[in-house]
Specification:
Layout (H helix, E strand, L loop, with lengths): L1 H23 L17 H12 L15 H12 L1 H6 L1 E5 L3 E6 L9 E6 L19 E2 L2 E3 L7 H16 L8 E6 L10 H10 L6 E4 L4 E3 L8 E9 L1 E10 L3 E2 L8 H14 L8 H10 L5 H8 L1 H15 L1 H7 L2 E8 L6 E2 L2 E10 L5 H12 L4 E4 L15 H13 L4 E7 L15 E3 L7 H4 L8 E3 H19 L1
Parallel strand pairs: 3-6, 3-7, 7-17, 9-16
Antiparallel strand pairs: 1-2, 2-6, 4-5, 5-18, 8-9, 10-14, 10-15, 11-13, 12-14
The chain binds zinc ion.
Length: 481
């Protein structure tokens, strides 16, 4: 009985401790900024994005293929922003990638790198309300492939500097615009080559900024505000090929275990045996930044994340595929192949498992995990194009503060937090040039619009585009003057 009372007492003390800790965790007041937006010509930036979309800069599936379209697109940019590109020095990399340098007046300051990719994913015409490369403007949006991913961000970045330069702005800090041409195929022909080239020249960046972090409605985390997430790292990427080899033959007299059946069992087992969930460093940092702003129950749970970790892991992995992917390496079967004909037992069946690796784990860890699940009956090999999770960029230093300050000024009252970007960007290739690699897409978007990326009827909301230009204007002012 005494033991029972003791346990009860300890539990009560622990709850009391957690309640006090929750009450004492105070959010910094969300200050309304007195920064006045610059004001820009909406019709002009809309026309620029609309024209940019018209270039069919679809990623080359064969990296050796010839095209003029990337060069024509660059000529279009140079004509569209004459002040900027009269000043900028251009360097072509690996035929279709390019970087431009606008020199700052103070050579003691490290430059910043503004990243974007020129390429877009293909767009079969079927299902589109307008032709995908028409750049048509309707419903307060610019329609077309690349209108979000990511010509809007490239246009906003260039538009912002063009406007400032026309106002007489002279950057103290040098600005690099680095535009790859194969981000949608992992960036090894574009961004990686730019990075190698700059490394050979001894270039170091104060920070680089690419697409990635997003603006979210905070409601799903119990926050009555918008949240601007700045990607400080990205997950690793690996495709594992599973191969089941059996005696093939006529499907009218199958053996007890077939190649397809064995492969299917292996895929099923992988789906059942997911990697363990855990809070990686960037995910801990994200919840630490957001917890003070949450409603009481959420706040209690997340302020006491260290104590309630098992419960939170259970909730977050079940709540939504998105929150699940923040806590663990995901393993998704994406392709499978058996015989070429319906009446043939294939001697070999293969499948692809697409893995996005949580910060803190490695490709090798996942390979061991998959091999342990499928056993000796399946061959497991790693396909090309894999990369371990990126390092995590700092959130205490000046570069992160410049970014979060810019966001709070332009998107008045939004709460900033760091986070682990769950997809891949070109920016992962820039770690040899800086410790501060950030990903942020400065466009407030609806869930519906976000779902159109890489899908049909991709479109960029015009008000968001305008806000994105304002973001870059303020970023150059904060970082380069
Ligand atoms: Zn993109």
């Amino acid at each position: 009985m005494i033991i029972l009372y003791c346990i009860l007492g300890i539990v009560l003390l622990l709850i009391l401790f957690m309640v006090i800790r929750t009450v004492l965790t105070k959010a910094l007041p969300i200050e309304k900024s007195d920064y006045e937006l610059h004001g820009i010509d909406k019709d002009l930036v809309v026309a620029h994005l609309s024209d940019a979309v018209k270039f069919k800069t679809v990623t080359l599936q064969n990296p050796r293929a010839e095209t003029r379209v990337f060069l024509e697109y660059q000529t279009f940019l140079e004509k569209t922003y004459p002040t900027l590109f009269t000043l900028a020095k251009k360097t072509q990399i690996n035929r279709y990638s390019v970087y431009y340098v606008v020199e700052g007046s103070d050579k003691s300051l490290l430059p910043i790198g503004i990243l974007a990719h020129q390429d877009v994913v293909p767009a079969p015409e079927e299902g589109w309300e307008v032709p995908p490369f028409s750049g048509i403007v309707k419903d307060n949006c610019v329609y077309g492939r690349g209108s979000q991913d990511m010509k809007s961000q490239m246009i906003a970045a260039l538009e912002g500097l063009e406007i400032l330069l026309n106002d007489g702005f002279q950057p103290k800090r040098t600005i690099y615009f680095c535009f790859g041409h194969d981000e949608e195929l992992r960036g090894t022909e574009g961004a990686l080559q730019i990075s190698h080239h700059l490394k050979d020249k001894g270039v170091r960046f104060e920070f680089v900024l690419d697409e990635g972090g997003t603006i979210l409605d905070g409601k799903m985390l119990g926050i009555n505000n918008k949240i601007a997430l700045i990607g400080t790292c990205e997950k690793g990427y690996a495709d594992f090929i599973l191969e089941s080899v059996k005696t093939g033959g006529h499907a009218s007299s199958p053996s007890k275990r077939t190649a397809v059946g064995t492969l299917a069992e292996a895929i099923y087992d992988i789906e059942l045996c997911q990697r363990r969930p855990f809070f990686s460093k960037p995910t801990k940092e994200m919840f630490k930044a957001l917890a003070p702003y949450m409603k009481p129950v959420f706040k209690f749970l997340f302020v006491n994340r260290d104590i309630l970790s098992p419960l939170l892991k259970l909730i977050l992995t079940k709540a939504h595929p998105m929150t699940n992917s923040l806590l663990r390496t995901t393993m998704a079967p994406t392709q499978a192949k058996g015989a070429d004909a319906p009446n043939v037992l294939p001697p070999k069946a293969t499948a692809n498992i697409n893995c996005r690796i949580n910060t803190g784990e490695t490709i090798e860890d996942i390979k061991k995990h998959i091999k342990a699940i499928v056993g000796k009956k399946i061959n497991v090999s790693l396909d090309q194009g894999h990369v371990d999770p990126s390092p995590v960029s700092d959130i205490q230093g000046a570069p992160y503060k410049i970014l979060s300050k810019t966001i709070s000024e332009v998107f008045n009252g939004y709460i900033c937090a760091p986070f682990m970007f769950i997809a891949a960007t070109d920016s992962k290739h820039y770690y040899p040039l800086t410790d501060c690699v950030y990903r942020f897409t400065p466009f407030d978007k609806t869930e519906d619009d976000a779902a159109r990326i890489h899908a049909i009827n991709e479109r960029q909301n015009i008000d968001s585009l305008v806000a994105g230009v304002e973001f870059y204007i303020r970023l150059y002012q904060n970082a380069c003057s």
